[in-house]
Amino acid sequence: MLQSVADLSISYKIFYSVLLFSWTVYLWEAYLAYRQRKVYRSTTHVPTELGNIMDTETFEKSRLYQLDKSTFSFWSGLYSETEGTLILLLGGIPFLWKLSGVLIGRAGFGPEYEITQSLAFLLLATLFSAVTGMPWSIYNTFVIEEKHGFNQQTLGFFLKDAVKKFVVTQCILLPVTSLLLYIIKIGGDYFFIYAWLFTLGVSLVLVTIYADYIAPLFDKFTPLPDGELRGNIESMAKSISFPLTKVYVVEGSKRSSHSNAYFYGFFKNKRIVLFDTLLEDYSPLNKAGEPGLEPQPVPEHSGESDSTENKAKPKNKKQGCNNPEILAVLGHELGHWKLGHTVKNIVISQMNSFLCFFLFAVLIGRKELFTAFGFYDNQPTLIGLMIIFQFIFSPYNEVLSFCLTVLSRRFEFQADAFARNMGKATELYSALIKLNKDNLGFPVADWLFSMWHYSHPPLLERLRALKGAKQD
What we know:
By secondary structure, the protein is mainly alpha-helical. It is 66% helix and 4% strand. The protein has a four-stranded mixed β-sheet with strand order 1-2-4-3, sandwiched between helices. Strand 3 and strand 4 (270-275) form a beta hairpin. The chain is globular and about 65 Å long.
């Protein structure tokens, strides 16, 4: 057996090593998920430590919600892994490359138009991914999220949204990819430096324009009206020299009752975005019997189709946080900025990107990498990018992902401490509890699952840190 493996060509060794590692990662993830599902199934009563945090009804709802999500994740993950394996074993990648060549050939482009063929390949690959992933997405939205009271979409709205996302993605992906391939082609020995600088520039531009030009294609952004909350947000930002220029409320409730908040922008042009579902006084989901946004305090959403495309469902309890709690949540988010977490993440990301492009430059000339995946006669640059970044780097990517998860948890504790030092420990404590309830987060986790997956510390760990600070 060992001798027969040793006799395999280097191409076959590469191919089967990729498959073996992919299934090893899948089985590891499946094992972790199994451990967590055992926690969901066995923890049927509120632990004593959580008695003052969650009531029995909410605890049971969150347990069942997370159990359904975990079960769905198992089957969707198994399908995805099986599909990927079959694509590799049956030569799906070289087949799609040849098909894209046939299609551009009918348009009058020969095999010398590699970039054109690459774009056709990318379009077909992303279309295949979108189509095969659609049933899973529909089930997740209209069965699981619907069952647990989060979904606010109709099927028509969901499908139109999916088409719009696909079109917008192609409008960005195809031009960026064509320029990247062109840079690699003409860049000479140091193309990896130019490619890295190009991707750095693209990422900075996308971060800058996303909330102003891309996100509004899908959601309505409304300036937070003048008032106590806006004034307090601006005062808090000024107190730590955060260059705030605008505060928006995004109409997230037309899709889901999950809540969120974030800031974006570079240099002296920072904006804060609050989901309407985060704001107790603004969330339309708190307005029983009313199917959409009300004129006050958030302006009414224009258009006659809102009442049919969005189906906001009133809750029996108020959703979101009050103003002091919102300020505490923003204190946490601004802590990430003040403590340099955003810059550190960008630096780490770009160092990783540069390293990957450098290693790509080293490996791209190895013909056996291409023959391992069925490319015997040509070595397309896009295929090289896919093979090296997606398959060859996969062990490195797994290690890096875990390290970034550990770092993220450290940053979250530091941001909580920053909000605490601003005098908002009590408000952040209650906000974390409310957000956990609103999003049906289950507060009990298997230690190994938590260590590997949680980019944020478990709720109880964060509350213990804040409670200690309150008592001090």
